[in-house]
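[RESIDUES AND BACKBONE]
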Amino acid sequence: MFAIFKCFVFTFVFVLQVKESSMVVVLNGVLADECPTSVRALLAAHPGYRDAAAQLLAAAPRVVAPQGLLYVAQRELAAVVPHDKNVTIIGSDDATSCIIVVVRHSGSGAVALAHLDGSGTAESAAAMVAKVQQLAVGYPEGRLELQLIGGFTDPHRYSDELFANIMLSFHRLTEEIDLTLACCCELNTALTGGSPSPLVTGVGVDIRAGDLFPATFPDKGPELPLRCARTITGGPNSAQVLDIYDNAVGMLRIGPFNYDPLRGVDLWLEQSDDFILQHLSTTPNVEPPHFVHNIRVTLKFIQQHPFPAVTVFPDSRPHYYRRDEQTGCWLPVRF
């Protein structure tokens, strides 16, 4: 995954069991008194979640083509509806210690997906629920459902902390939401040669059928180096989880945002692949083969565009992409 500098964002203080007057995350159809902020605590009270995770892990992974795909990168979210003519699958991958969050309204089929790494978690939870509720207006039947996929028992327990933060973020909202899947942390961990690794690092959602499946996405959509640059550099927009889809016009929307110039970018580009892997990933032993290549492409983009507000978004307007009817891929829109 594009898991750069995530050690800087896990600065949270967690309470392992939070008791409040009510709980809005519904577990197995019941409002619980306590918020389980670890998978172990969740399974102790509700062992059925192990079976739900096992079903996902047993499903055949799919390699998803770009046609009809809305890909959500790290620190991004998007929401769509089944009748959207531009999107058939929404998904994300390369989540090693990150967690992919899916919120769905069972009546309307409206679905939101986010790829979270610890930045902007509470804001993302609120935004996802608000977006899905907005898209579900007019459908009196149905419930909000929450699905969590990704993360593993990594050596630094980043995924465990992120799982806790996600659970607490949804718990503190006012809307009831049913946790239907938690394929995370210890439920998503394999021991390969004695070392832990994630079993599923990507997931897709068929927005018409509502099905969720393990997936990889060779094509991750337009301007990926620009989109990933925020996670490396820092700055006023780097910690935000950005909504990348404009439902009103059915277009992919990138930016505008700014990031700080990356000091020493030239020096980073001179380093070996192994050096980059070891120093720019929090989970170097389980990164996909394309990780270092993506890092280098992103670093080169930052080198060429140290001030994106000037060179990439000079008019402070988003970059829009529409779905081409013939190819099914995203094409830039010039205004």
